[in-house]
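Exercise 7. Given the components listed, write out the predicted structure of the assembled complex. Treat all entries as one system.
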Amino acid sequence: MTAIVLYGLRESVRRKMFAVVIVLTLAFLALYAWGTHAAFRDTRSFVGPGQEQLDPNVIAGAIVEGLAMFATLFLGAVLSVFLTLNVVRGDAEAGLLQPLVVRPVGRARLLLARFAGAAGVAAGYVLVVYFATVGITYWAGGWTPDRVVSPGIELAAAVVVVAAIALAGSVFFSPIANGIGTLMVFGGGLLVGLLGEIGRAIDSQRLQRIAGGAWWAFPFDALYEDALHRLTADTTGFAEFVLRLGPFGGSRQAGTALIVWSAAYLCLVGAAALAAFSVRDL
Amino acid sequence: MAPVLVAHGLEKRYRRVQALAGVDIEVGEGRLVGLLGPNGAGKSTLVKIACGLVRATAGSVEVAGAPAGSVAARRSLGYLAELFRFPAWMTADEVLALHQRLTGSTGGSSERGGLLELVGLPGARETRVGAMSKGMQQRLGLAQAMVGSPPILLLDEPTSALDPAGRRVVRELLEELRSRGTSVLLNSHLLSEVELVCDHVLIVDHGRVVAAGSPDELRREGGVEVETAAGARRFPDARRADVPRLVRELVAAGEDVYGVRVVTSTLEETYLEVVE
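Answer.
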């Protein structure tokens, strides 16, 4: 098992694509540092007479960190999709899978190991980028989220769920179809989350119900919104209201049931992938 | 010799295509069995079922007494796929080390070095797969299949990417394996190769075994040719046992006999006869 996990990890980080991801991430962090510095500087003048309860640092900090979390989730999701989109069908078509499957490791172990490798790399990437952005935000404006660690963990968990969906898709679809399909599911999930925010803003029960249902179907969005919520979990009053209308949808507390469901969802998607892979002719 | 691989009534259907339609085979210990047949005959499917890569629709396959696809069966076999690749970033040594870990082989560095030498790649230990020619990768594939010294090797077109020198290396390797008691099921298009090294040959067509036997048995007698003063005379229905009688009759008839040859068909002729 360890051998195949290490193989999966090396397979993930040895690709040229991973070097491109590192370069682009460094570029993103540099731009983020520049933009965050400017955001804190420019929002100092926001507070007018009678608005002393509105701390511009909280507004700027929460908004830019929210932006960073959206970008981190997006990059992490794209990375996890690219690491898993070809694990079964793609690798089988390329002839990479057969020499491994005939070994006495078992298909379930092989799939779990490849998942562990890809999910580990993607989750690690998300955690590194998230904590880098938290550090940059603190450096630029002296602001830190109300909860520092748990939003990063939830963001990483969201990316792991996306990786599981792409891995399950790789059993059925060719790499290109699987990549496009998984990213569409990911985009759809985020979009329905925004729809829910619009529903709350205009008080549409139907939109809120649709968004609520989508949370169960796409728990990565529930994890993301819960992570956003934790950024300003202790912020109250007018600042909380302003942040809820922020540009990246809002934050919403997922609740224990959805967090538990996310874990169960991961197991269900994994079980479906294992069941399909175990009977697939290679 | 106890059979290492046994298939009974093996059938495989891919939707509307009947790839195998009731195949029975046995590969005995230390035997080298060749599988011949046209494209789409079902040879690769048969090998893949034995490896556990493909599930049979009906029938059964046992490898070293265990059902094909089970962990015990996979522990007993080495496999070289017709189309395979190793990650381009791995070195030959890393590929073999990975397969050693997957098979639980304790051979270590000396096994890896020995295998690379056996397949004619003694200097390629640190060469990356991406820098290897197709022929070198094919040889590395063979070495990979032999990791852990499995009692049976399933080789699907092992010489397809090799030049004549490489094919010779594989032939010598197969003979070496036979001498060590390893059983081999060799799927190949190259009749000459099968004819040279295999103890037993199965010709498969449309998912069925249409001819089986040793290469000698499959080469059919095609009459007797007698060289006389009047030229070569052909007796198409005569067999080897008829030669003394034929010569006596010709001499009695006043003919001078200069030579006699029992005509046998080649494996290729037999093959073409049964698959057409």
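Discussion: The mean pLDDT of chain A is 86. The interface with chain B takes residues 2-4, 7, 10-11, 14, 94-96, 98-106, 279, 281-282 of chain A (CB under 8 Å).
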